[in-house]
Amino acid sequence: MSSSGPSDPFNSSRSGSSNPFAGPSVVVIRDVPVFERVPIKLSHTAANFFAWKMYFGLLFREYDLLDHVDGTTDLLAMPHDPDWSTIDATIIRWFFQTVSTDIFHTVVRDGDTARDVWKNITGLFTDNKIQCITFLQQEFFGLHQNDLSLDAFCLRLKILSDELRDLEFPFTDALLLSTLAAGLGEDLSHAASNLTLLTTPTFEQAVAYLRNEERLQQHLRARAVHTALAAGLSRGAPAHSPSAPPPDPP
Known about the structure:
This protein is an all-alpha fold. The protein has helices at 26-30, 34-37, 49-62, 82-97, 101-107, 114-126, 129-141, 150-166, 173-183, 189-194, 203-236. The radius of gyration is 29 Å and the shape is elongated. 22% of the residues are buried.
């Protein structure tokens, strides 16, 4: 099932293959540890469609399975092949095992090919593009660090930005960085202005800088607590006085 074409995992071409069914071993495909290759459960509420699709794109390329989902193979014009059907069924099982229960019940339908199931699942997240973008925008621009750790806050921002980019929303790194700076908690708000001093920083560089600032703040707080504790102990120690002689026995 080798394919030649653009690097986009969903726009491959099989024109260079003389045998459209010559491909990976059925046994190999059956034994693929799908939960290791796609360690995500796709859900409407988790904003993880981009990551789920990316993991599957890598899996399709790794095992030469793109033509099962990209629409380049006309199954009606080809003779029935048991290996192809078996592999197609395995891919469908992968899809069902890596989506939430509600998505499974929405798309499951007897007789569908892997291509059909792939289109149905991805369509849930791309067909209503305007509504999806509106929902993601509201969460993205309204996100603040609050009680989140810096890493959790930055990760959530990055996930939301990836989802928006995947929906072809005109998203820029500058917008991501400005939203990051605006949502930082009070402890790191002073560091937000310093981000502008970096020369065209990437998101990764900005996060690395903020992590260093967070560690510095933690160190300063720990030192202040230690200093205050030491000063308190010093003030509370009893004054030193000469030892008094023991009282005379009665």
